[in-house]
């Protein structure tokens, strides 16, 4: 790495993007040492640490929303962002400013030993994710937050966020096969990596829907010495009303009893994530500060962008980015009830190349939900080759599909066809856009502009 002058938010942001995203270069010990140099900011706050394959960000968002409803001062660190990098760091539910981003970036930048690095020597330089994590810790300490909700980036045990000294609660969302080159090729092995965030003497709350993952988490919790294991599965949760715009469900809970909750979303998978958040509130010892009314209001007010989000009339984006995510997305789409209005469904699909897109495409094909599909590459070097996707679709699907050269053209094409059908007096179709959070981010940026 070579030193260069960084004079603006834009330059700081570009500097981070020019760095590698995934690396095992730094150990937890090295990351922890750098945190010490920053003044141990993590020791100034209580931390809830969240790992898992799917649902991490949503679970964090529900937790944050409930805490804010009760007047608790929070910091939220999540990834990835959809449109603006400042989305990753929130104080009391609001994105940090570009100025706060730049100031914290420079505080770390000034600590890097560029002279040694330029000579080829061994000096610590944070990776992309580590850098943002350090920035969040600095910002949270300066803001004097009480509770930090911290989402892991990749895995758990070796993730940069696991360098914090302790956590009040570890939370593990649903496990699936993803990032197998880093985390292992079975759900049990991946669960062990995720369970690496568990702290001795502290509780762990986890999603109990994948038996082999649950068994691995329980074993790790016992080995590490967790004070309590709290599982959330089908026996505790009952969906009793699924409407076109929201979902009502009940949760059997030790403190709140049989509490009724409402989600401001059509995404069925959010019932599981909201339930994890409720159990985490109890595990964190916050029930005396958070009444049942605050809990209900916080859950209902929560909005997490990019998860079954309606960005335009009858246009929904969803961050389904692996086979389990696609299954959850399809389950919600199947229950949307558009047939009652005489509508059909269409799909725009884009995915990054390191995902199991063959399985994702098979799930889409077997669902039989879409009358046509548009494939589009993403504006990232990680995008899957559209021609490779075309070949897989040719083998799997029986409905019309085509490749369009970019997300904007794909969206424009679908909107034109929606308008044309409505002009003819027809009900038209509901458009879903899924396959990658990168795709969701691009579509949201297009809609905003």
Please, could you describe this protein's structure?
- The protein folds into two domains: 9-233, UDP-N-acetylmuramoyl-L-alanine:D-glutamate ligase; 309-448, Protein-Tyrosine Phosphatase, Chain A.
- α14 links the parallel β15 and β16.
- The chain has helices at residues 9-17, 28-37, 56-69, 98-109, 114-118, 128-143, 180-183, 187-194, 211-224, 270-283, 292-301, 323-334, 357-367, 386-396, 407-423, 437-448; strands at residues 46-51, 74-77, 89-91, 94-95, 147-151, 169-172, 204-207, 229-232, 237-242, 247-253, 257-263, 309-312, 315-318, 344-349, 372-375, 401-403, 429-434.
- The chain is of the alpha/beta class.
- The chain has 16 helices and 17 strands.
- The model has no long low-confidence stretch (mean pLDDT 92).
- 40% of the residues lie in helices and 18% in strands.
- The strands form three sheets. It has an eight-stranded mixed β-sheet, sandwiched between helices.
Give the overall pLDDT as a whole number.
Answer: 92
Structural class assignment: alpha/beta
Number of strands: 17
Number of helices: 16
Strand order of the largest sheet: 4-3-2-5-1-6-7-8
Number of domains: 2
- Oligomerization state: single chain
- Return the CATH class of the largest domain: Alpha Beta
Radius of gyration: 22 Å
Name the poorly predicted regions.
Answer: none
What is the strand content? 15-25%
Describe the sheet with the most strands.
8 strands, mixed
CATH architecture of the largest domain: 3-Layer(aba) Sandwich
- N-to-C terminal Cα separation, in Å? 35 Å
Overall helicity: 25-40%
CATH topology group of the largest domain? UDP-N-acetylmuramoyl-L-alanine:D-glutamate ligase
Spell out the CATH superfamily of the largest domain. Answer: Mur-like, catalytic domain
